[in-house]
Automatic annotation (TrEMBL):
Residues 198-473 form the NPH3 domain. This is NPH3 domain-containing protein. Gene3D superfamilies: Potassium Channel Kv1.1, Chain A (3.30.710.10). Coiled coil: none annotated. It comes from Manihot esculenta. Keywords: Ubl conjugation pathway. Residues 500-519, 551-591 have a biased composition (Basic and acidic residues).
Length: 591
């Protein structure tokens, strides 16, 4: 950065306790008090250049010592000392760091051309116009220093001129950027021929939020830069000033910030949200979700949260799992991940989706968006399922938030449920049923169905549903006899009550039992053909009693003959074997 050197004499100021004096053979005849500092000076060098001091000393005798109090001088004692050294001809250096206080103090002391030619104000104005405003970092540093003298800087036009200079340089084509700038992004090499398009974003992120907003507002009013560059500037500023909420919550995290810091961060967040361009894609959904997590952490207003949820839902299909994984900040919760925020974003996304007609859903990209969202959520569930303190209701709320059409298959959902059951081995039967009730065996691939039949963690009802679907479909992928033998191999044999299977009806002439009232999100039907297919596939599953473990009935003999090539699965026998296995595990747990 540039600087201006004025004066030729060496520094003759010295300090003695709280007094600043100059080395001179002449006695002191001017005492100036500023805050807690007393200056012992001389009238001759100061009065000819300072109009204010001339007016204050006009009624005094030339031979007497005058004492003045200048506690309200802008910039304080440091700024006054620069002006005093200029009057004595002592060498001083003026740069972007001290220009604002020096200029304001010189204006306060009336060191203008009307008092003496070549005065301090004229020299400072020349330096400001020819050096500071022509430079990039000089303008930004000068603008930063106006924070302590905001009113003076506004009245003297310093802020407006600096902002105009910065805004004028930002649209410069990257190939024509010749000044120094800060750019620390990974992978960037300054040996490149031209500057990156967002070369200006890091430097302006050092400014106060009010000054930053003035620059962003001025840039947007020119309509020169694309919204994506504006969004990048907001992203850099948020990374610079807002707290990082991606780390796991610690017990003392809520006490780590004072109320003043929290309020400042909240004000920065609200300002950033208000500056996000309305254009879709101007900022990434990952950035929006991070702002939402920060808003929840800082206790931002409901208006800010609602706006972030709405904006995030418009781009949720573009998110990754890492974008959704942010820690829970609720002091009462023991689980690691904040799943409630994800549910709110999904519900906002579905509000827009439900307003569409079935024909629109099938024929537009909205169907692709909701399918990508379903895939994303099921993958996200596989992550949060590893949280040992994650309660079943929260997982179920996210599973059931999506309509049926969002999942083309249930393989990923099955994986998430299996992980949850594995990480929570002491889960009750009721919770297992609640967790698995949204799992549709018709949407499982043959490989996953084969795994489900062998999966001892699943509730019995789910396994039987898979077997019935295999039997109804006549699947050749998995050998029915192999599946039956797999279930029979579990657990030790134990007696079955006399009427153990009476309520399970499998024949077409037998009376069906009532099914579990599982809540399903209504969705537009793809076609009448798909509906009839689903209706036919659900027929066998609807014949199951939800409380299979408690059913009563006679223990019929095997309907399947061993070794018969056209044999079918006997679900009664499978349930009998699985019940023995479950009962054996329950007894072992009780012991």
């Amino acid at each position: 950065m540039k600087f201006m050197k004025i004066g030729t004499r060496p520094d003759i100021f010295y300090t003695e306790e709280a007094t600043r004096s100059v080395i001179s053979d002449l006695p002191c005849d001017l005492v100036i008090q500023i805050n807690n500092i007393t200056y012992l000076l001389h009238k001759f060098p100061l009065l000819p250049k300072c109009g204010l001091l001339q007016r204050l000393c006009s009624n005094s005798d030339d031979s007497s010592t005058i004492t003045l109090e200048l506690h309200d001088i802008p910039g304080g004692e440091e700024a006054f000392e620069l002006c005093a050294k200029f009057c004595y001809g002592i060498t001083i250096n003026v740069s972007a760091h001290n220009f604002v206080p020096a200029f304001c103090a010189a204006k306060f002391l009336q060191m203008t051309e009307s008092v003496e030619k070549g005065n301090f104000v004229l020299k400072l104005e020349a330096f400001f116009n020819s050096c500071i405003l022509e430079g990039w970092k000089d303008s930004i540093v000068t603008l930063q220093t106006t924070a302590k003298l905001t009113e003076w800087s506004e009245n003297l036009g310093i802020i407006r001129k600096c902002i105009d200079s910065i805004v004028e340089k930002i649209p410069t084509p990257p190939a024509k950027v010749t000044w120094s700038y800060t750019y620390t992004r990974p992978g960037y090499k300054k040996t490149q021929q031209s500057a990156p398009r967002d070369w200006w974003t890091e430097d302006i992120s050092d400014l106060d939020i009010d000054l930053f907003r003035c620059i962003i507002t001025a840039i947007r009013s020119t309509y020169i830069l694309p919204p994506q560059l504006i969004g990048e500037a907001l992203h850099v500023y948020a990374s610079r000033w807002l707290p990082d909420t991606t780390r796991t919550r610690s017990p003392e995290s809520s006490m780590s910030q004072t109320d003043d810091v929290t309020e400042k961060n909240r004000r920065i967040l609200e300002a950033i949200v208000s500056m996000i361009p309305a254009d879709k894609g101007s900022v990434s959904v990952g950035f929006l979700l991070r702002l939402l997590s920060i808003a929840n952490y800082l206790g931002a207003s409901p208006v800010v949260k609602t706006e972030l949820i709405r904006k995030s839902s418009l781009q949720i299909e573009e998110a990754t799992v890492s974008d959704l994984v942010f820690p829970s900040r609720a002091s009462s919760s023991q689980h690691v991940y904040d799943i409630d925020l994800v549910v709110q974003v999904i519900e906002s996304f579905l509000m827009r989706w439900r307003r569409q007609t079935p024909e629109t859903v099938e024929n537009t990209q909205l169907l692709r968006a909701i399918r990508k969202t379903g895939k994303l959520i099921d993958t996200y569930l596989q992550v949060v399922a590893r949280d040992k303190n994650m309660p079943v209701p929260k997982v179920v709320s996210l599973v059931e938030a999506l309509p049926d059409i969002a999942r083309k298959d249930h393989d990923d959902l099955y994986k998430a449920i299996n992980i949850y059951l594995k990480e929570h081995p002491d889960l009750s039967k009721a919770d297992k049923k609640r967790l698995c009730r949204s799992l549709d065996c018709q949407k499982l691939s043959p490989e996953v169905r084969a795994h489900a039949v062998k999966n001892e963690r699943l509730p019995l009802r789910t396994v039987v549903q898979v077997l019935f679907f295999e039997q109804d479909k006549g699947s050749r992928t998995t050998d029915p006899r192999m599946l039956t033998q797999e279930l029979f191999s579990r657990g030790k044999q134990m007696p079955i009550p006399v009427d153990d299977l009476n309520k399970l009806h499998l024949g077409g002439d037998e009376q069906s039992v009532r099914t579990d009232g599982t809540r399903r999100t209504p969705v537009p039907e793809s076609s009448s053909r798909d509906y009839r297919k689903k209706k036919r596939s659900d027929r066998n599953s609807q014949q199951l009693e939800p409380e299979i473990e408690e059913v009563e009935g006679k223990k019929g003999k095997d309907a399947r003959e061993e070794g018969s090539s056209g044999s079918k699965l006997d679900p009664k026998k499978i349930i009998q074997s699985r019940s023995r296995s479950d009962h054996g595990r329950d007894k072992g747990r009780d012991r």
